[in-house]
Amino acid sequence: MAFKPANNIQDLQYFGEFGGVNPSISDSSTYTFLSAKTMFDTFEGNADGCYLYSRHSTPSNLYLGQALAAMEGTETANVTASGMGAITSVLMQLCGAGDHIVSSRTIYGGTYAFLKNFTPRFNIETSFVDITKMDVVEAAITPKTKVLYCESVSNPLLEVADIVGLSALAKKHNLKLVVDNTFSPLSISPAQLGADVVIHSLTKFINGSSDTVGGVICGSQEFIDDLRNVNDGACMLLGATMDSLRAASILKNLRTLHIRMQQHSLNGMYLAEKFEKDGLKTVYPGLASHPSHELFKTMMNKKYGFGGMLTLDVGSLEKANALMELMQKQNLGYLAVSLGFYKTLFSAPGSSTSSEIPVEEQKAMGLSDGLIRFSIGLDADIERTYTMMKACMKELKILE
Ligand SMILES: *Cc1c(COP(=O)(O)O)cnc(C)c1O
After folding, report:
1. How much is the pLDDT for 55?
2. Which of 23, 27, 105, 283 could be joined to 128 by an S-S link, Cβ 3.0–4.6 Å?
3. Is 82 in the pocket of ligand 1 (CB under 6 A)?
4. Mutation choice for ligand 1 from 88, 112, 114, 182, CB with most ligand atoms inside 8 A
5. Higher-pLDDT residue of 216, 14
6. Residue ranges, CATH 3.40.640.10, the chain
7. Cα 198 to averaged position of ligand 1 atoms, centre (Å)
8. What is the mean pLDDT of residues 365-369?
9. Burial grade of 55 (CB within 10 A; 0-12, 13-18, 19 or more)
10. Could you confirm whether domain 258-395 is CATH 1.20.1250.20?
């Protein structure tokens, strides 16, 4: 039977302290114990259901974690203060001095900067590879490699990772496959395809209202327990803890994710097809021209489509900037980084979200100056949006 992530979320039943239809928010940093012995046991990690201190866990954070674990089909999950809080905790937990990581070269700029500039301080080295080439990935693995890292759909080039293939490689070489699924919640379920750990920035589609940062790590009970361990757990010790009030608000937004993703995908597909027909260089995993279109189809939960992210190459940075400014003036969206908002967001990744990546490397991976990354919004009338965007492109002579 097909994996149904939204059903899994919906089937969880929560009640608040007074029978509320939403769980009560636990607004406390610390918790009382009826006996001193239970407090000791909790520190030792042996008192199930007891709360200790909110950097460790809180009822509100556990509710949200439980829903996200249900969505990804993992045993459990731990929510974090941001996506980077999730990514850095996972990598610091899995790797120590002398270890090596094989990572996709097209990843979120912050993750790239962390692996390129920060982890070498701890003698953790990373090889960046073209993740779509299995032979290249395997050739980069050394006896020191501990982690294979990628994004299901990469930022910003929308390359698609063959998670089944990468999982086979990870098993063969005894590595952990860590997948950042921020661009494709519900559409792709990496743990069902063999990923060991699935990460999201909740800041994007999952929360969807661009009012907070947040992150999650979905994985086995054993791994999440390790992350929370008071003696050597990266989540506990690095301290990227989500606040309970935020956990409660993100859980409420998660309720509509399945509807939002369908609309983002519908709108993304519509615009991608139109712009490609108009002769623009369009990258969208839903287009037959996308190099990984067939691969995406083998991995996807069909109902949620190919997502809300697409890129257009309009030829030069000047044209890209002029188009983005004009579209914002026409209220077609905002010139802003981030994604997953109800409103369309656009930015030129080469000079913003991926500026951490040196220009030569940007060129090598196909990140051109004129590239605009779009997070397509929930527009109710996407035909009108298209007509208005096209008019902007004509005005700037990007289209005839
Ligand atoms: C935004 C983003 C992150 C970082 O998440 P924050 O919540 O901003 O810390 C990581 N990975 C991807 C793919 C992202 O888009």
Report:
1. 94
2. 105
3. yes
4. 182
5. 216
6. 5-254
7. 13
8. 83
9. middle
10. no
